[in-house]
């Protein structure tokens, strides 16, 4: 246990500290922007990013992953804030955390194994597109100097690491270009243009809402949606970081940790948040690997606000835009184009549908859920194909059933028999099939009744133990299935 703690916290101190500083600088404009999206004061997003990043460092299940206020969560908050105000948002944040903790205890992270690779690729690519699209308003059509700063930032973050790696290139870009912008007194937008920053620490208080069923009725739908979206985004981000670092993470602990972080954040005036794929990739690419990076990101974020607020508001937006463009480029799975050529058409369709839905709705959970449903439908269609082959042997007609028998294949099964046969011994061989559900039992029932109606003697054989058990449990005593001879 001690070795594990040492490895997670202190095995990469320099890399974690420097990466945390870079992340903190990039968190500020995003937290302010997400607050504006949600319709709340910028400090609500900043306090949320501070609280969540610090708390998740201790209770999360994925070292090196960054959690804070996010755009996906902010979009869900808009109607609640508009209709009921910030106090109800804070109450919903607390309830969101409670729901997520319950999900964690119930080991909801097991659902990750049901997310196909095509959906994961679509999720990652959609996220890269959304990250890039979010930067467009901050540099397109602003000024020529804005384009110059974005270009120089990209040049620094891609070229400098080829010769110098002691300090993360994004941090160098922020420090150097901020100094240049201040000395040039150039006409470019800064962090301060997004919103005012109050140089005060968050304080503990209970949201000013009535403690009654009406309040619960108002906030529960939003809290449930926030909990689901937050966990989907967090668990998918954890999986991506697992792949980037070649390590495993405790997904159920992450679910509980996200819940704890949101509960505490709600009591300190912050809005609900979750893992951030963009900031997590910035952290990994800047050398962050341990829990210390998330702690430093949160602490340094508050240090910047309290101590260096006057300087932070002068950071040029084009520099942060350039860093986020780097993130979007790094996030996009460029092997997708090869995947489109080689993968089965159904998988390609699922991947593209996931991308389209996420980009169109700006809701990661809707895209992922839609992708999973599409994958399931394609899978059902694929495995529902079955054959019923007829042959004659030893004076009787034998039907061999091949393929799984369940709700999607019963029509093929029923259509595979000749119901004109009369006064004959018929054997149905199930040795090459598996009966999966009540629909399958019902289909056997129907076939038996139609064949026996023509005075045929019907036998079935080859049932495996699971299929036999299903028939014994679901067949009605007076039905032909219950009476049929089994060999």
Description of the structure:
The strands form two sheets. A four-stranded mixed sheet has the order 3-4-5-6, covered by helices on one side. The protein has a two-stranded antiparallel sheet with strand order 1-2. The chain has 21 helices and six strands. It has two domains: about 1-330, no CATH class; about 385-485, Transcription Regulator spoIIAA (2-Layer Sandwich), CATH 3.30.750. The protein is about 65% helix and about 5% strand. The longest helix has about 35 residues, at about 215-245. The protein is an alpha/beta fold and about 475 residues long. The protein has helices at about 1-10, 15-40, 40-60, 70-85, 85-105, 115-135, 145-160, 170-185, 215-245, 250-265, 275-285, 290-305, 310, 315-330, 335-340, 345-360, 365-385, 410-415, 440-450, 465-475, 480-485; strands spanning about 65-70, 275, 385-395, 395-400, 425-430, 455-460. Strand 3 (about 385-395) and strand 4 (about 395-400) form a beta hairpin. The radius of gyration is 29 Å and the shape is elongated.
